[in-house]
Amino acid sequence: MAEKSFKYIIVGGGVSAGYAAREFEKQGVKPNELAIISKEGVAPYERPALSKGYLFPEGTARLPGFHVCVGSGGERLAPEWYKEKGITLILSTEIIKADLPSKTLKSAAGDTFKYEVLIIATGSTVFRLENFGIQGADAKNIFYLREIADADKLVEAIKSKKNGKALVVGGGYIGLELSAALKINNFDVSMVYPDPWCMPRLFTADLAAFYEAYYTKKGVNIIKGTAAAGFVSNEKGEVKEVKLKNDQVMEADIVVVGVGAKPLINLFTGQLEEDKGGIKTNAFFKTSVDNVYAIGDVATFPMKMYGDIRRVEHVDHSRKSAEQAVKAIFAKEQGKEIGAYEYLPYFYSRAFDLSWQFFGDNVGEAVIYGNRDPASEKPKFGTYWIKDSKVVGAFLEGGTPEENKAISNIAKKQPTAPTPDSLATEGVQFASPP
């Protein structure tokens, strides 16, 4: 079995790995010093494209169109880019053992990789219904969406079950975005989730009420307060019915599951300090072991703005944490210092004709404003969150680029809040006064 050595190794080939590679190149990494080891068979790509564009029937996103770093308006790093820069892409290779004391990684094929500096960018993996012991959850045509291979399988099913019935399990990001995509593909779509409203980790009841009404108007059947309890297959082993905990039985040609994800840190358990489900790092994404860094979904880091530590699963943090870690690595080598990571939480989504952005923290009192009539041609509304008399979070549906930038600035500056009634009256103008 082969043994290869590199000065720097990134384990994982997702968004973080691609943005780290770009920063390595900016910092002057030498040819053959850096390797990216990924179990996927393609170069790093912008993962949000899978739920936001890949499934659309027209104008669909396809590689190489959404390789990193196009998601942030940068140059697209096609496979040739890595070759030109002397960066080694080791694809379709799963690392099954990491020995940090000996600085050694081993692959499923038995190959050994030695490093001086390791960056852990292994990301997350989805929760699967089989893991919960749900009967029949291994039936064909039950899909999860995390990697491009998952998206390809779902695209084929959409084509083969044209105009069929689809059930989406989960009411978060994946549930909302894929319900819209399936409806656009002319499926009869139902969405089921156990929570009292959709996207409960971010949306208030008032916000959720708009999106649920809008989706209902678009023809999506929403079933709240229950969950999938079992699946029935046909003679081909394909799912045909879904039994719900409320005793309903739903016909389904396709089931898509989005019930959350967990960080992939099992390779390093017992070797690195952990916190809040992730690998604990400092403000430079250095772990408890020297010359080992963790970025993206797997990192639990100091949230300077709020004085606590958090783990964030979002593409924006994946990009920015990667850049911060690489800058820190080179600063350390050069005996220099860089500033601590200052991150403003940011989330966004696009579905149907809707587009929202959120910045900051959704804690404290929520003040909603604007036109949230789901029958409106162009609904536009938002929410501010007030804590300790300061505006700490801001959400806006249907905002212009300038308005989205304005609510970002508000969430970052955390100004003193006026009265809730005044804030509701001013609406987005509070963030972007004339």
UniProtKB/TrEMBL annotation:
This enzyme's EC code(s): 1.6.5.4
Domain FAD/NAD(P)-binding: 6-319
The protein's enzyme class: oxidoreductase
Location of region: Disordered: 411-434
Entry keyword NADP: yes
Catalytic function, reaction form: 2 monodehydro-L-ascorbate radical + NADH + H(+) = 2 L-ascorbate + NAD(+)
SUPFAM superfamilies the record matches: FAD/NAD(P)-binding domain (SSF51905), FAD/NAD-linked reductases, dimerisation (C-terminal) domain (SSF55424)
Entry annotated with the keyword NADP: yes
Residue ranges of the TM segments: none
Cofactors named for this entry: FAD
Example of a GO MF term: monodehydroascorbate reductase (NADH) activity
GO CC annotation terms, alphabetical: cytoplasm
Similarity section: Belongs to the FAD-dependent oxidoreductase family.
Role, per record: Catalyzes the conversion of monodehydroascorbate to ascorbate, oxidizing NADH in the process.
Protein name as catalogued: monodehydroascorbate reductase (NADH)
Source species: Lactuca saligna
The organism's taxonomic lineage, starting at the top: Eukaryota, Viridiplantae, Streptophyta, Embryophyta, Tracheophyta
